[in-house]
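Lab notebook, bench 4. The sequencing result for the construct came back, and we need a structural model before the next group meeting so we can plan mutations. Quick request posted to the team channel:

Model the 3D structure of this chain.
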Amino acid sequence: MNHVLITGASSGIGRQLALDYAAEGWKVTACGRDPAKLEALNLANPAIDTLSFDMTDLALTRQALAWVQASLVILCAGTCEYLDSGVVDAEKVTRVLNTNVLGPVNCLDALLPGLPTGARVVLVGSTASLVPLPRAEAYGASKAALAYFARSLSLDLAPRGIQVSLVMPGFVKTPLTERNNFPMPMMISVEQASQCIRKGLARGAAEIAFPLRFVWLLKTVALLPFAWQKRLAQRLVR
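Done. Here's the predicted structure in token form:
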């Protein structure tokens, strides 16, 4: 039986992926920090196994994941905190980097020694890493770091027969984006996001970015000189 381990499964994209893979007959290990939300997920589908731990704690992560030998690992947990008016709040930045970068790194530290040949590691980044956006210094930097890490890791794991995929969603309707107080163009549902990810992984895609129109818009902006990108960003602020 195929076995998938998913972090960030308490809510949002991670939760939907857990439900969808379980419905397809996969063995699912759903990980998160909130035991109550994981219990609710297990009630929604009793076939889903759950693990509650804080992935920003390396020792706890090693202890929780030492036994896992999944054929597919989806590191989906993430958070977002914005900086306002250019005020750099080091505590905010640290929290975002710990969750979005060091958390997945801790999971890989624990999981990689036991992953079999042919396994796939999936790091969930964001299209926010493609262009600089207002207030998104911490979030965008964390996702840009994760994207570089994924692409570099794919080179080093290839000789072991382990593939790496980078997922870059646009705006997805989740509890995280519900906190945003600005327009979020081309937003999609968690069901649509899960479908895009599962289809991309099924065909072995190294990069899965969606929705396509939004991705191509950002990639086009990223080709412009930075001065032009800055003007566009300032218009967004206004």
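The chain is about 45% helix and 15% strand.
Will bring this to the meeting.
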